[in-house]
Amino acid sequence: MLMHTHEARLDALRKQLVKDGLDGFVIPISDEHMSEYVGAYAQRLEWLTGFGGSAGTAVVLANEAAIFVDGRYTLQVRDQVDGKLWSYQSVPQTSVAEWLSQNAPQGARIGYDAWLHSKGWAQGVAEALEARGATLVAVASNPLDAVWQDQPAPSLAKAVPHATEHAGKSATEKRAEVAEWLTSQGLDAAVITALDSVAWLLNIRGADVDRTPVALSFVIANADGTADLFIAPEKVTPELTAHLGNAVRVSPREAFVPALQALAGKKVAADPERAVAAVFQALEGAGAHVVAITDPVVLPKAIKNPVEQAGHRAAQARDGAAIARFLRWIEVEAPKGTVTELTAADRLQAFRAEGGLLKDLSFDTISGAGPNGAVVHYRVSEETSRTLEPNSVYLVDSGGQYVDGTTDITRTVWVGPDAPHAEVKDRFTRVLKGHIALARAVFPKGTAGSQLDSFARQYLWSAGLDYAHGTGHGVGSFLAVHEGPQRIAKASGGQAGTGQPLMPGMILSNEPGYYKTGEYGIRIENLVLVERRDISGAEGEFYGFETLTFAPIARDLIDVTLLSGEERDWLDAYHAKVRTVLAPQLSGDDLAWLDAACAPL
After folding, report:
1. How far apart, in whole angstroms, are the C-alpha atoms of residue 3 and residue 337?
2. Which residues form the Creatinase N-terminal domain (predicted)?
3. Number of domains comprising the chain
4. Is the predicted pLDDT of residue 209 greater than 60, yes or no?
5. CA angle, residues 548, 551, 555, in degrees to nearest 5
6. Which residues, listed in sequence order, are joined to residue 361 by a DSSP beta bridge?
7. Long-range contacts of 586-594 (CB under 8 A, 24+ apart)
8. Of 121, 175, 239, 293, which sits 20 to 30 A from 87 (CA to CA)?
9. b vs e for 218-256, b when ≥16 Cβ sit within 10 Å of the residue's Cβ?
10. What is the pLDDT of residue 494?
């Protein structure tokens, strides 16, 4: 009897673990840079299990296996991963460490790849295993790679300079600022491993990870303002070499570990959230004095300079016109019953591409019709694609990568021809009220995202409803669509970034939602920029948000009786601005549609 593909892969891995003298192995979605989105070569979890989400971990033991995901993927994991092979585990209700402390065999050797996990994770799991008399073992080579016969090679796409006209600051200036920080901290060097940090610091971009324009590389930034870049030689062009200049030494990736070991006796910064355990092991093993501290690039990267802010506005205006054209197309075509989630996603990408400036999408479009819209991080495929049925809800979360900015927008629409029913309008309006409350928020300097999260949830909470994801994430400048350290989310659950004060220049999403399992999903998402607010008589510095995203919000889904006068005024003013920004880019039927979509309530 032939085994199913994923069953055969699990069986092959178990046989390899026996060969390697291991009783279990942990498989995350990760790469050597702790990236959220990883290159094809690093999609080990998807290859083994079929799970296509962007966050999750699996544990394989001799006789059982478990997959761990958070609330965003509760439905998706059940659709994609065989429950006969894997038990589904919910994070943060449980964790890999907790599960292993109860399920690892006594005295077991549990393997992990130190290039795919953080030092803190490894310490926590090792401590949990002690209760079973078991040990966590860093493997010399990943056993999954040994059985993944057609594993793709890491990308060798060329790395390219990112012009100062878009970056707003030269790489020389950025390195000097890091050097000044190192000197102030009494440090000799900082190890920069996050791909977007490397890209920002050196003003380079790449094509090694789908949807994120980064180049696979590491940097050691030195206190004298020089830097060492570790990157595959095939990726380096004469143009890149000229851009980097004499102060950046370029070496192959294989030279990275020897370079870490050469820091023996030096005081070196490494970020415990962004640098893998193997980096700490190499430094500590060589006798370096390691200071665990946040990557010095993270905060400057998050605070967009005026050039980056202007670039974002230009990208958003361009992107909004594509969204408006798409929304009109959906309104016309979807009620015919011939549009599918896949054809809709393709049409939206085509509208974005028609401007000639789209570099890539910023993530795989979430195109969710009816019940698929209730899967928070749904990824449409040939197998799952549904038709947008007449008289149903359609949710589309999408974004574009442009050289001057990264976009991320969600719109929820009603597919006619009949009017939407009362429950959908109630839920949509509660989500909208939360969106408006956050957009209008004014807050003192020092306020963290966690303190604003309930602004967006309050109208759902009052009806006994909620959503299982954060309300806002940071966004990069022609970089990662999910960027730290800022975010807006509940403070519980150990979520990184919820304690970071919001600062002028930071860009975040504003995206409350509501999801009725098996029926529909609703989300309204705009990007916002933190800006200073001048308030007469204010005692101290106060901030608010500038909305950056411009596209109509579905008026037919709003129960106007639930809106206050101030909320109606906000929406009318928003739609007036949408028309001002988008109308010069549209004509004919598209412009007529925009006029109607932006009419005052």
Report:
1. 38
2. 9-139
3. 3
4. yes
5. 130
6. 400
7. 586/321, 586/324, 586/325, 589/328, 590/324, 590/325, 590/328, 593/324, 593/327, 593/328, 593/331, 594/324, 594/328, 594/552
8. 121
9. bbbbbbebbbbbbbbeebbeeebeebbeeebebbebebb
10. 44
Q: Give the domain range for residue 34.
A: 5-147
Query: What percent of the chain is modeled with pLDDT above 90?
Result: 94
Kindly state the tokens that stand for 75: 């439905």
**HEC readout, 518-531:** CCEEEECEEEEEEE
Three-state DSSP at 65 gives strand
Q: Is the dihedral of CA 93, 98, 100, 104 positive or negative?
A: negative
Residue 151 near residue 257, CB atoms below 8 Å:
no
**Three-state DSSP state, 171:** helix
Residue 405 identity (one-letter amino acid): G
Cis preceding linkage at 161, omega within 30: no
DSSP H helical ranges for 510-587: 565-582
Question: Which of residues 301, 324, 357 is at a domain's end?
Answer: 301
Residues β-bridged to residue 432: none
pLDDT in tens, 327-341: 999 999 999 999 999
Q: Which two tokens stand for residue 287?
A: 């006798």
For 422-487, give the DSSP string: HHHHHHHHHHHHHHHHHHT--EETT-BHHHHHHHHHHHHHTTT---SS-SEEE--SSS-SSEEEEE
Residue 556: is its pLDDT beyond 90?
Answer: yes
Q: Which of 88, 119, 147 is the last residue of a domain?
A: 147
pLDDT exceeds 50 at position 418:
yes
* Same domain assignment for residues 525 and 576: yes
Place of tokens 């999954």: 144
- Per-residue pLDDT reduced to its tens digit, 79-93: 999 999 999 999 999
Return d(Cα 435, Cα 511) in angstroms, integer: 7
| d(C-alpha 179, C-alpha 199), whole Å | 17
